[in-house]
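Just wondering, does anyone understand these tokens?
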Amino acid sequence: MSLTLTAMSDSTVTSGRQQWSGSGQTLQPPRGPFISVITNRTTNLLIRGAMLFSVGVFLALVLNLLQVQRNVTLFPPDVISSIFSSAWWVPPCCGTASAMIGLLYPCIDSCLGEPHKFKREWSSVMRCVAVFVGINHASAKVDFANNVQLSLTLAALSIGLWWTFDRSRSGFSLGVTIALLATLATQLLVYNGVFQYTSPDFLYIRSWLPCIFFAGVITMGNIGRQLALYEYKFIQEKSHQD
């Protein structure tokens, strides 16, 4: 009787193995619906994009509030329509730009084959955000002798932010490129009367504005890289558990 049961169990195990292996390929057990969703590349991009957009909108509301309170930027009365004293189109534009930057940085790292490994933890990202807010706060609150001194100070702080939390050549190049494009777009907006800067010293804007854009690009790039790394580790852990 025991021999019969042993033979039956061996045949069951053998048939089970045959179901999981065929033509020299080993099939993985089916994954649950949650794992199937989060491991989908398109879904991951949408989730990360939504999170980056939310962070960009929040930072735009807070930081633009500092600029408006100090009368650094002036919006016409008919376009001010929010409790944060900001034009309605500023947060969505900043959120969209943040999502694009945050998604672009990991893609550039992947294309160059140079994964960013410097200070890859959330505590470092939070410190980077705090330093960026501090740089923006300094541009609005701290009084300097002249605009040249302010611009040089913010430039040094922005480069220090990149050196402390990034140190990648791709991050620096992308930050400079996007900062220049954003400065040009701001020049066009001011030229067309959408808003204006008080005491402009660089054509229609303030000379320190590219430094703020550069620091913002580095900050959102770090957030995007960390989100991509976190999701990759999460997917790997869930796949191993299954």
